[in-house]
Design a protein that fits this description.
Elements lengths: L16 H4 L13 H5 L25 E6 L13 H6 L5 E4 H6 L7 E5 L3 E10 L6 E5 L20 H5 L2 H6 L27 E8 L9 E3 L1 H12 L5
Parallel strand pairs: 1-5, 2-4
Antiparallel strand pairs: 1-6, 2-5, 3-4, 3-6, 4-7
Length: about 240
């Protein structure tokens, strides 16, 4: 139960829009946005392909849309050291449609490269029919290099509050695959109206190359900056 300061149960209130309106300047559902107009953007709903979905040069035909997602078990970094949740869900192999994987000569469990406009990462393929053939996806919130021993899949970790006093973690943390953090290969792109970061992009998926190791990540900060500047040009004017 949710209680107020007097210890009484609070009851959820529904239909507040009927008396208070919506969270807009006019308190009504707005189709025409003055806020967008002031930013020099189209005030009516239109489709403008965002720069983050532009395929890397030369990859227009073979590009796949990459997205990240959260599972029902985790709430970002705040649950990364929960040993019960991490035991259930600790890695984030890349979801890829089985038909698409077959065309790329990729089998379930193979090492693959996800190549974006700013770099690449190496992970494992998870073939499934539960994803669109033109989309690949990885769970966010994996591949930690900090926070604590459970998040990093390390039994003996120097952070005492995370593992030192928990014999269960020291002796029974059986998994070694902590996943791969996809954030570094996501090009920097900010929505000019809301200021929110876009977490989808176009990538090329290919079999891993000789010398690639699971978890490898290689990116170029200069490419991040160049991508951002080029992507934002469409909104200037």
């Amino acid at each position: 139960k949710v209680l107020d300061s007097n210890g009484k149960s609070l009851k959820a209130k529904y239909g507040l829009y009927k008396t208070k309106g919506f969270a807009t300047p006019s308190r009504k559902i707005e189709i025409y946005s003055e806020a967008l107009k002031k930013k020099g953007l189209e005030p009516l709903p239109v489709w403008i392909k965002p720069g983050n979905l532009n395929a890397p040069e030369g990859l227009e035909k073979e590009g796949l849309i990459f997205v990240t997602f959260k599972t029902a078990y985790h709430a970002g970094s705040s649950t990364a050291n929960n040993k019960y949740l991490m035991e259930k869900d600790h890695s984030n192999h890349c979801w890829i449609n089985k038909e698409t994987a077959g065309e790329l000569k990729i089998k379930d469990g193979d090492l693959i490269r996800l190549v974006s406009s700013v770099g690449y990462l190496v992970t494992k393929a998870r073939g499934t029919n539960a994803i669109h053939p033109k989309v690949v996806a990885m769970e966010g919130g994996c591949g930690h290099s900090a926070i604590g021993g459970v998040a990093q899949a390390e039994r003996h970790h120097g952070t005492e509050w995370a593992t030192g006093k928990d014999a269960d973690v020291r002796h029974n943390l059986w998994w070694e695959d902590r996943g791969v953090n996809p954030n570094d290969i996501i090009p920097l792109f900010i929505d000019p109206a809301s200021g929110a970061a876009a977490l989808s992009m176009t990538v090329k998926v290919e079999p891993a190359m000789a010398g690639d190791k699971y978890g490898d990540i290689k990116v170029d900060v200069n490419l991040h900056e160049a991508f951002y500047k080029k992507a934002m040009e469409q909104f200037r004017g």
